[in-house]
Amino acid sequence: MKQYEKLSLVPTKWLHTLPAHWGCKKIGSLFTERNTKVSDKDYPPLSVTKIGVVPQLATVVKTDAGDSRKLVCTGDFVINSRSDRKGACGIADRDGSVSFVNIVLTPRNNWNRKYIHYLMRCQLFSEEYYRYGKGIVSDLWATRFSEMKNILLPVPPRCEQDQIVRFLDWKVSSINKLITIKYHQINTLKELLTAQLEHHLTKYPIENTVRLKRLGEFEKGGGFSKDNLVGSNGYPAILYGDIYTQYTYSTSIINHYIDKNAYAAAVKIRKRDIVFAGTGETKDEIGKPILFYGDDIVAAGGDVIIFHPNKSINEEYLLFQLYSQSSLRFRYIHGKGDIIVHIYPKDLGDTLIPIIKKSNQNQAAKDIKAIILNTDKGIHSLEKEISVLREYKVRIVSDVTTGKIDVRSIKIPGYTSEKSLETDSGNQGT
Fold first, then answer.
1. Closest C-alpha to 428, from 55, 72, 71
2. What is the tens place of the pLDDT at every residue in 102-141?
3. In the prediction, which pLDDT does 427 show?
4. For 42, which DSSP code?
5. CB 291 within 8 Å of CB 249
6. Which pTM was predicted?
7. Which residues make beta-bridge pairs with 300?
């Protein structure tokens, strides 16, 4: 792909230069702000996310501000004003309403709306938008329309906007297709791991089947809160959320620390203990277990369930049995709640564990650990490839929309559109 032959300097660092035949104007001259107050009873609630403007999820907890929302019309550009939602914006493809934390803009001129969508969602614009904001600290940083209207935007001729959109639709779709293939490969590796785990757990003769509570003792964590969290010079602690987000199967690494008084009062986790998350958002994830094999004595947070295995069983074999399909089904059935799901030691204690010879336990655990290691290597390699493809997508959108690459003469081949698998799990309520 080639560059434009003639460039002009523009008075803004985020663009620096533009093709000589492009315009460059302030947002305030290109858009009007829409500030119409409406109710979500009349205009369906929309969420402004990092994947664009989408219908609000039915599971989102509703606020009391349903009668005080901003009107959004099809073709409006909507952007979240808060810095912690950087990149949450897009062109609306339907009428609806959004929280007043968002800025709603209506294009004045005959823009290609999809070009606006690509341009103002690119990383370069996100950083410029943030730079124009104000706030006491980063968490309270926001950009209002009064500041935003002074940002300069490139304005290509309309026919060129159309070609840029055609090119990016094709190119982004091609990249999305490659990313989708990588995700399918990751899912295949995970499914293969599940099948191999089941094979190695069931290949040996079963001598007995016992309930988990006969193989050790349970304790319930608690005694401190997030207010007790301190820097790394404190005392080690595991929070129930860590089990979901930071650990897979086992860990010796601790990422949270608490003060001395809270640590002294807390229930402790020791080497060889299996730690369960007693609370989760779905029944599929409830009761996720990890094995702690570090040398530290660690405080257990609230909703953390600790199991101290006795010497009769290999703790790694026991952990892998807790990941068997029968154990997963058991926890799914015994999870209680809808929005927040809980499971309790008395329920976990009834999990049935097949007992095999100790030497077979040792061998099964060794084989499964090797399989997990190889699977993790494969997944890590694919995730790196996905990261490179994402970076390429971000770069090409920025370069094409801001005139760094000339795509006017590129012929767009026939292609099947492929949407992104990327999701935005945060702040679906706005």
1. 55
2. 999 999 988 999 999 999 999 999 999 999 988 765 556 8
3. 44
4. T
5. yes
6. 0.83
7. 238
